[in-house]
């Protein structure tokens, strides 16, 4: 018989680890962004249709 509780626990733990990894990546990306200077990058040129990121 399949041990569904064990499988569910395994899946839950893996998903939780992924969420924590994504949170950490977001924090690190935000920290890098805040350390950048304010000079415009090529991605922020007027020909780009997306607005530049705004600091909070």
Automatic annotation (TrEMBL):
Q: Where is the composition biased (Polar residues)?
A: 42-56
Sequence segments annotated as region (Disordered) = 32-56
Q: Give the protein name, as stated in the record.
A: Uncharacterized protein
- Organism of origin is Neobittarella massiliensis
């Amino acid at each position: 018989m399949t041990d569904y509780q064990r499988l569910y626990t395994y899946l839950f733990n893996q998903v939780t680890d992924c969420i924590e990894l994504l949170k950490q990546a977001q924090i690190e990306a935000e920290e890098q962004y805040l350390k950048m200077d304010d000079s415009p990058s090529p991605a922020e040129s007027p020909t780009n249709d997306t607005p530049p990121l705004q600091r909070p």
